Amino acid sequence: MAGPETDAQFHFTGIKKYFNSYILTGRMNCVLATYGGIALMILYFKLRSKKTPAMKATLTWTSSVKFRCLEKLMSTHHAILNLYNKL
Amino acid sequence: MNENLFASFAAPSMMGLPIVVLIVMFPSILFPTPNRLINNRLISIQQWLIQLTSKQMLAIHNQKGRTWALMLMSLILFIGSTNLLGLLPHSFTPTTQLSMNLGMAIPLWAGTVITGFRYKTKASLAHFLPQGTPLPLIPMLVVIETISLFIQPMALAVRLTANITAGHLLIHLIGGATLALINISATTAFITFIILILLTILEFAVALIQAYVFTLLVSLYLHDNT
Questions:
Q1: Is the residue at A1 inside a domain?
Q2: pTM for the full model?
Q3: So what's the ipTM on this one?
Q4: Is residue A71 part of a domain?
Q5: pLDDT at position B173, please?
Q6: Among A67, B41, B102, B191, whose CB has the most other CB atoms within 10 angstroms?
């Protein structure tokens, strides 16, 4: 059974001292690193943007001031045309 | 026939009121309380049986694990007596209900796991990685061990439910077959009746074994975490 008395026989150096599958601390750190990695992957996929570059460009253009001015100009033009046709 | 097969597993009610709570509480009145130093024969036998079971079950535990003695003994007595009472004709067996068994399994398993994480956090976390695992297999094995941990209460509940339900269904079916064969062929009906007798004896054994297995597994989960 693993424990402090059996852990004493292992002498690791470097990163293996903290991440190995022999001593209690090493096993715990490997488990926590695995859970951390899974959590990071889930966060990455949740937070990444779902829109394509073409959609992003369209949305940027449609939300810009230039587009809004053009839209207003077009609607004014249509209103004048309708008024003219009525007359 | 099909409707009658599962009718015995429906939650019983009397005059529209559910009586399943009374049925669950009923086995407790069958165990007399010892109130003298030297009791009568029945209570002495009961005490001897409980002592025998508790000695065998708690031998592997340390001081902390032995604080669960009352819980484990109550569990085995309750499941054993409920299973045995369910073998009486036309009776309702609460342990055929998955909801009941999950209600027993999940809190007991969670109790052992939380005890382990609270008092031996490092060892409980290290338990998810078997000693000596090769480096490339570590992430996969951690995931597999985590899944196997969460499967434990489900397996505990479903094992008891399936065993008791299957036994009751078999008795029902073979009993029905015996009755149907009486008018057709007496010899075949007799053979089927012998099978029914053997099956009933088996079900008595299964009733006690399943109670023991449930309690033993809870005891093992506790041992891993204390």
A1: no
A2: 0.82
A3: 0.74
A4: yes
A5: 93
A6: B102
